Amino acid sequence: MEAESQRVLEYLTEVEEAAEDVLTSKQQIVDLDTKRNRNREALNALKNELSDSEKVKVCLGNMFIKFPKSKTRDMIQKDQEQLDKEINDLRKGLKAKVNRLNEMQGKPELRGYNLSPLSTDEVKAINSLLKR
Q1: Would you say the pTM of this structure is higher than 0.85?
Q2: Which of 15, 48, 55, 57 would disulfide-bridge 64, Cβ 3.0–4.6 Å?
Q3: Are 32 and 87 in contact (CB under 8 A)?
Q4: DSSP characters for 72-113?
Q5: Mean pLDDT for each consecutive 10-residue tract of the chain (132 residues)?
Q6: d(C-alpha 72, C-alpha 50), whole Å
Q7: Are 23 and 97 in contact (CB under 8 A)?
């Protein structure tokens, strides 16, 4: 009897760890997406509000530093690319984690969950076929 209760406890612990891993990944995606939105707002402000010759103040850590507008834009765009890559990697990993959690809980695998969007080339090919 005690061995069975120990086995149940281990199973529940594994399921809880897997669920915690899924929630952690989701929260990381939300946090990175929030940062990406702030960067997008900053890029729009740089594009719309100032002339190219002006310097802008950039908050790095706990201090503000003046940078040329073009260099600031480049830094933010590089940060955007890095954030996009991290978010996509987390989303790909999240699919596997959710499938593992569902498998541990005895639930069927989610259908249509492993779909990926069409690339721009594929969309162009479909549009050209539809225009005929």
Answers
A1: no
A2: 57
A3: yes
A4: HHHHHHHHHHHHHHHHHHHHHHHHHHHHHHHHHHTPPPPTTT
A5: 86 91 95 95 84 79 88 92 94 88 83 75 90 78
A6: 12
A7: no
